[in-house]
Amino acid sequence: MLVNEFGKVGLDHHLLVRADEKTVLLEHGCVCCTTREDLVGALLDLLDEEGKGGIASLDRVVVETTGLADPAPILFTVFSHPVLQHHYHVDLVISTVDAVNGELHLDRNPESTKQVATADAVVLTKTDIAEPGGIQALRARLRGINPSARMLEAPFGEIDPEELLRPTAGWSPDESHSGRDPDANRSTPATEALMTEDGDVRHVSRTRSTSLTFDGPVDWAAFGTWLSMLLYARGEDVLRVKGLLDVGEAGPVLLNGVQHIVHPPDHLGEWPDEDRRSRIIFITRGVDSGELLVSLEAFRGIIGAGPRLLEANAPV
Q1: Tens digit of each residue's pLDDT (9 = 90 or more) over 64-90
Q2: 48: which DSSP letter?
C-alpha cells in the first residue's frame, strides 16, 4: 500500500494494521500534483524489489491519497509512464464520503464532487453515527452525481475488503438496483442549491449524468474518433465516461475514462450479462445531455447507429 500525507508530519501509515503487506509513505505533498515523481519512484521500487525476490509477487497495489486529491493526474501517471503502463493496471477508483459531513464537503470543495464523479465505488463512512434521514439524502445526492458507482457503507469503519476491491467490468442501467444499494430506486433532487442569508440561490455544482445507448452496433473506429474530439474540446468538463459498447462482435468494448485520460479500450470476449445493448454513461460539468445527443447524431452516418437516451439527471 502507498499512503500519501498532505502535511509535513506523516501519521496515517502508523494507523494501519500491518500484516505481510508493504506500506510506503509518500511525504512531500498531495499525490495528485506535487508528488507524482514520488509515486512513480515508489511503484518502480516495488517492481524492482519484486524482481529481485525481496518481496512476494504483487497481487495488488493500493494508493491511498489525501482528501484533496484529484484522481485524474494519478491515473495519467500510470497510463502514460513508459514502464508503469506495462506492469500496472488500474482496477478501480474508490472514494470515501463522510456520512455526517459529506453534504458540507460537497458544497464547499469542488474536489469532493470530482472524486465522487470519477469513482467506481463510493463508501459512506460514519453511517453508525449519522442520522438515517441525512444518509438517505446524501445517498440521493451522490446518486445524482454518479449513478453508475457502487454504493457501500462502512459502519464503525468496517467493510468487506473483497467487496470493496471488487473490480467493475462495466456498467448496466439495472446494476444500481441490486441489494447492495437500498436507495438506488430513489429519485435524485432536480437541483441542489444553497440559500444564502439574503435569499439568493447559488448552485454548488453543474455536474450532471447522461446515460445512453444506440439503436444498433457502432463502428468502433468512428466512435473512438468522436470521443477523442469530445475530450479534446471539452476534456476538462467530461469528468467520467464508462460503459460497454456494442461493436457487432461476440463481446463489447469496455470504455473507462476520467477527463482527458481514457483507459486502453478492452475488447471483451463475451457480454457480462444477457443485455447486449450498448450502455454508456457520461458524467459531465456544464455539458448538457442534449449537446451529447446532437453531436452523436451528427456522426450517425459514420458511427453506423443513432444515440438513444436512457436517463439524464438534472445538474446537482
Answers
A1: 876 767 777 777 788 888 898 888 888
A2: H
Whether 139 and 176 have beta carbons less than 8 Å apart is answered as no
Q: Domains, the chain, ranges and CATH? A: 2-177 (3.40.50.300), 201-312 (3.30.1220.10)
Q: Are 183 and 266 a contacting pair, CB within 8 Å? A: no
- Better pLDDT: 216 or 8: 216
Residues 230-281 pLDDT 10s:
988 888 888 888 889 999 999 999 988 877 777 778 898 999 888 899 999 8
pLDDT of amino acid 200: 34
pLDDT > 70: what percent of the chain? 74
> Which residue in this structure is represented by grid cell 467493510?
159
Reported as half-sphere exposure (CB side, CA atoms, 13 A), residue 240 has a value of 29
- φ and ψ at residue 78, rounded to 5 degrees: -70, -45
Closest CA to 144 of 189, 203, 102: 189
On whether the CB atoms of residues 314 and 244 are closer than 8 A, the answer is no
Would you give the distance in Å from CA 252 to the centre of its chain?
Answer: 20
- The mean pLDDT value for 11-30 works out to 47
Q: Distance between CA atoms of 10 and 7, rounded to whole angstroms?
A: 7
Question: What are 185's three cell numbers?
Answer: 430506486
List phi, psi (to 5°) of 265.
Answer: -55, 140
258 contacts 283 by C-beta, under 8 angstroms:
no
Which residue, 254, 255, 199, is CA-closest to 230? 255
Dist CA 202 CA 211 (whole Å):
26
Sign of CA dihedral 275, 143, 124, 182: negative
